[in-house]
Amino acid sequence: MRRDYSIIWGLLVFCIVGFYSLSLFIADHSIDGFDRLAATWVQSVQSDRLNQLAAVLASAGAPRTGVKLAAGLAISGIGMVFCLRRQQFRTLAPQFIIIAVVNIASFYSNFWLKHFFHRLRPTDHILSYSFPSGHAMASFAFYVTAAYLLWGNIPSKAGRVIMAVACSLLTLLIGLSRIYLNDHYASDILGGYFVAGGILLVTVLLFRWRKWHLPHSQQRITEETQKSATPT
């Protein structure tokens, strides 16, 4: 348990330092060379099929799409658990709440951060600000959070690995699609990942502190320990 907390705190510090460093590099334009290099590499291969794929990926990572999916999943999931498995309500319901909280917090924090940094886009056809990327934050908030929550509910190790790789790859591809379409700089994507990752980690820490979220395996271990400690 202590090792888990150490990992979470370490990742949270990494996200905070990473985002703060990015904001400094953007302010003094020292990261412009990296952004140009990344854009040149990603946009070097273009085709009609890739354009269509990038558009589909952009739709899958749209901020409003993530919020709607997360809210719908949370409401339907909580209702299903309450109606069908009331004895597991206190264990499973917080998992649906977590994904809704992370996505809503990411959506509004992205709006505030964009208006704080006022970074212009690499293109003129989008009027909103660029840093951090809303699509990067939304995709990380939904797909990576879903992977974290599903991890403890998939019995086989191979299934967990496949699910985690699929969610991570989809999140990465959505970020690359924004660079491919010239809607964002690469540093915008990294900044979005850092912020969404930080929000997810803070949410997990809060739920663990309140003991609202225990994976199934951990819950069984806790219950067995309590039974064995009870005098007969």
TrEMBL record:
Keyword Transmembrane (UniProt): yes
InterPro entries, per the entry: PAP2/HPO, PAP2/HPO_sf
Cross-referenced SMART domains: acidPPc
Keywords annotated in UniProt: Membrane, Transmembrane, Transmembrane helix
Bilayer-spanning residue ranges: 7-27, 66-84, 96-113, 133-151, 158-177, 189-209
Chain ranges of the Phosphatidic acid phosphatase type 2/haloperoxidase domain: 96-204
Keyword Transmembrane: yes
Pfam families reported for this sequence: PAP2 (PF01569)
Stated name of the protein: Membrane-associated phospholipid phosphatase
Organism name: Sporomusa ovata
